[in-house]
Every structure is written in C-alpha cells, then in structure tokens.
C-alpha cells in the first residue's frame, strides 16, 4: 500500500490533539457583568445612531421634495425671465456694429 | 454543550434577556461561557487573548439576538457566531510567509522523515513534533480550510457536526476538506523534496 505522509502526520498529531484540557472553563469573575454592560452600551449607541439615521434620511427626503416643488412652481417664471433678459440684453457685437 | 444543561431553562432565559433583564443576560453569559471558550481555545488566532475573543462572541450574540428565530438550537447558533468570529480574526492576520524546510525545527524535520517512511510516532516527543509541524502547515491554509481540517481530521467530527458548528452545508465541508488536504499533501511533498536536496 502506498504511503500517505499526510495520513501518517494527522494520526501522529491526533495523539496530542486532545490532551486533557484542565484549564478553567467557567467565566472569570466580572466577565458576564462587563459583557452585559458593554452589550447594553452598544445597544443604546446603536439605537441612538439608528434614530439619528432615520431622522437624517427623512430630513434629506423632505429637503429634496421641497427643492423639487420649488423648481416645479417657479420654472415658468424663471424661463420667462431668462427669455426676457435675452431679448432685452444688449448684444455686444450689435452694439459695436452700431458704433461703427 | 454547557454542562448544567438540565438545570438551565434556556427559552425562559432568552425571553427574559429579550425583555431587558440584565441578571438573565449575565446568567446566559455564564451558562454559555464554557462552550464558547472551548471553541475559542481550539481555534484561537495568534496574538488574540482568548477572553477578548470570547467577549466579542458574546457582544455579537447580544446584538443579533433579535435575529434568532429558533430554527436551530440556540447553542448551535452561538457556536456559529464563535466559529465565524475566529475565522474573521484569522483572516485579518497577515498570512505567514511560505513555509520552507529551513524553517522547521530538528524534531519537525525528523517528523517529515517519520511520516514519509510510514513509521508511527513512537514517543510523546515525536507526537508533539507532529502537532507542531501540522500547526505550521495549517498556518499556510485559508482560515476556512484550516477550520475544516481541524474539525474533521484533528477533532474527528462528522460532516453533520461540522455543518452544524460552521453553518456550511455538508457538500461545502467535503469540498473544503478535500481541497485543504490536497494542499497540505502538496506542502508536505514540497518539504520532503527540499529535505532531499
């Protein structure tokens, strides 16, 4: 049978893979209290930031809507005024020709 | 699985935690700590203190608690958070430079001889060298592949167990294990070839 170094290695490594792990597995004193306090802090920070995010998006939406409405209501007045200005404006070339 | 599983009313504790009960949250942490710390210790990335990693797992657990719908046992759900947290940390670490024969200790180099000649590790020192050599080889793998080899080959967990722990389906576990073993075999062959030069 062909030698498989990988299988031999993993077999040898398994011999030390599960030594009796007698290290402490109970939570150190104060660990749970610290974790719960941090989780609470994060939750509060998260809820404040998500509240702020919702409000910010809402404000942005409102601002966009107001901007769109003001453009819609004033577009005719603006275009009329531009046309008027163009008609009334002194064309510098014409003015120059008149002078000559 | 936590040891005092019989005494602990997990659904009731979860309901209390969701209701904002701080004492219940502390009890839940203490109950799950042995399970989480075992996962963290077995897959601890270098330079990360185990307590910091355990703390991160619990913070993720609390922040995602509303997402837990009970499709799987809560302890499995927490295991997955612990495993993915370890993988994230392993991924963040810089990959080690390519392993060369010259990087091996004398015992590890001897171990290459032993495994290629199909001899079994005869004493504890050799077994330890095998373990150290394996760790060096595993360091060369992607975190997900490393995790699969650790769980399947080293801890001899079944595919179903690995799928439960990691959240990957059994096909993915099989594919990852196959690829990881192939890469490890190639690495071993390369070291062996370097040795004979």
Overview of the molecule:
The complex is a heterodimer of chains A (100) and B (197). The longest helix of chain A is centred in the middle third of the chain and has 58 residues, at 31-88. Chain A is mainly alpha-helical and 100 residues long. Chain A has 3 helices and no strands. The radius of gyration of chain A is 38 Å and the shape is elongated. Chain A has helices at residues 5-17, 31-88, 92-99. Chain B is mostly helical. The mean pLDDT of chain B is 85. Chain B has helices at residues 10-18, 22-42, 50-63, 74-92, 106-116, 124-138, 143-154, 159-166, 170-196. Chain B has 9 helices and no strands.
**Amount of beta strand of chain A:** under 5%
Mean pLDDT score of chain B:
85
- How many separate helices of chain A? 3
Specify the helix fraction band of chain A: over 70%
Q: What Rg of chain A do the Cα atoms give?
A: 38 Å
What is the β-strand count of chain B? 0
The structure class of chain B reads: mainly alpha
Total number of strands of chain A: 0
Helix fraction of chain B?
Answer: 55-70%
What topology does this entry show?
The complex is a heterodimer of chains A (100) and B (197).
Chain A: H1 5-17, H2 31-88, H3 92-99
Chain B: H1 10-18, H2 22-42, H3 50-63, H4 74-92, H5 106-116, H6 124-138, H7 143-154, H8 159-166, H9 170-196
Short description:
Chain A has 100 residues and is mainly alpha-helical.
Task: Give structural attributes.
heterodimer, A: 100 residues, mainly alpha, 3 helices, 79% helix, B: 197 residues, 69% helix, 0% strand
